[in-house]
Amino acid sequence: MSLLRRFKATDLFEFNNVNLDPLTETYNISFYLQYLARWPDLFSVQFSPHENVMGYVMGKTEGTGKNWHGHVTAITVAPEYRRLGLADGMMNLLEEVSEKTYNGWFVDLYVRCSNAVAIGVYRKFGYSVYQRVRNYYSGVGNEDAFDMRKPLARDKKHETIRDNGENVFVNPEDLESWR
User: Fold this and answer.
1) Four-residue CA torsion sign, 13, 86, 105, 178
2) Is the pTM of this model over 0.85?
3) Residues ≥6 apart with Cβ < 8 Å to 171
């Protein structure tokens, strides 16, 4: 049986197998440590019975007023452990903490518009596209991102989501100042 637990600093030495996926954003060590220090309850790792890292989720809280929310900075599962429902459990935990501990209005994430598999998974989890951010991902061939959101219990009227967000285009500099 696998184990989902809070991420520890020493886990940074164990998760290369997960981060080698080309669709996984990789950060420098200080970035991971900053998240671990500031939002430890939103940073979890899944281990196999053989103590291999299967995946992890890293999040934070941000915003003000009705924009106060949980944000999924990264979620990834090692290729050999995909399609086992691990992402579902990790996302549920992050959403629960965002709702019950931080009293957030919604959880959001960014995903490459070309990553149809991930978009399908997020839709299955109840996320919808809020807006499309032009050239969000830089590098070879800048790529747009979908800003996807899932309302939490606090948003009873679903004020933090919209229909047809795929057709709402913004530039990175137009994003709310709390980003």
Assistant:
1) positive
2) yes
3) 133, 134, 135
d(CA 70, CA 89): 16
**The pairing of beta strand 43-47 with beta strand 3-6:** antiparallel
Q: Radius of gyration of the chain from Cα atoms?
A: 16
- Can you tell me the distance from the alpha carbon of 126 to that of 41, in angstroms, rounded to the nearest whole number? 22
Contact 76, 40 (CB under 8 A): no
Give me the torsion for CA of 167, 173, 178, 179, rounded to 10°: 80
Asked if residue 108 lies in contact with residue 133, where contact means CB atoms within 8 angstroms, the answer is: no
Closest among 89, 88, 80, 59 to 71, alpha carbons compared: 59
Q: Quick check: 104 pLDDT over 70? A: yes
* Residue 118 confidence (pLDDT) above 90: yes
Tokens matching residue 36? 């671990």
Catalogue the E-assigned strands of 8-118: 43-47, 53-62, 69-77, 106-112
In tens, the pLDDT along 10-33 reads 999 999 889 988 878 889 999 999
Flag whether pLDDT at 141 surpasses 80.
Answer: no
Contacts of 23 (CB under 8 A, 6+ apart): 76, 112, 115, 118
